[in-house]
């Protein structure tokens, strides 16, 4: 169930999330700093990201139903996430938000929230 007044609702629901994830992984799959920590086939990774972002922005709790509690930091510990890789990830996301035509002020609000999450995921110095 979608909560009224959520970011998910404000940006238009599933379709913008899908556009965002598609645009994002197109970049991740070509980014030299990110390729080493992502699988060659990004299909399942993108599917999980769609579920997560839907839930993260106040939509249906699809990630919880499919994968359980997010526990993002723990799930990402096997991957060396350095400040440089965090920045690369955020660069891909910033470009994807524009390509997916997420309008302001939502684009900035989403990017700020994802920046906090990306900072939390770092687990290794350069």
UniProtKB/TrEMBL annotation:
Cofactor annotation: heme
InterPro entries: GlbO/GLB3-like, Globin-like_sf, Globin/Proto, Hemoglobin_trunc
Organism domain of life: Bacteria
One term of GO molecular function: oxygen carrier activity
Keywords, in A-Z order: Heme, Iron, Metal-binding, Transport
Pfam families to which the protein is assigned, alphabetical: Bac_globin
Similarity comment: family membership: Belongs to the truncated hemoglobin family. Group II subfamily.
The protein, known as: Globin
Lineage of origin: Bacteria, Bacillati, Bacillota, Bacilli, Bacillales
């Amino acid at each position: 169930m979608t909560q009224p007044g959520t970011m998910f609702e404000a940006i238009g629901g599933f379709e913008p999330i899908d556009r965002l994830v598609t645009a994002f992984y197109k970049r991740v799959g070509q980014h030299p700093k990110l390729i080493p920590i992502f699988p060659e086939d990004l299909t399942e990774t993108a599917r999980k990201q769609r579920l997560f972002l839907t839930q993260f922005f106040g939509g249906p709790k699809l990630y919880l139903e499919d994968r359980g509690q997010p526990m993002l930091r723990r799930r990402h510990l096997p991957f060396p996430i350095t400040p440089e890789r965090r920045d690369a990830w955020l660069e891909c996301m910033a470009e994807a938000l524009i390509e997916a035509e997420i309008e302001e002020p939502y684009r900035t609000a989403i990017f700020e929230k994802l920046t906090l999450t990306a900072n939390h995921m770092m687990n290794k110095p350069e």
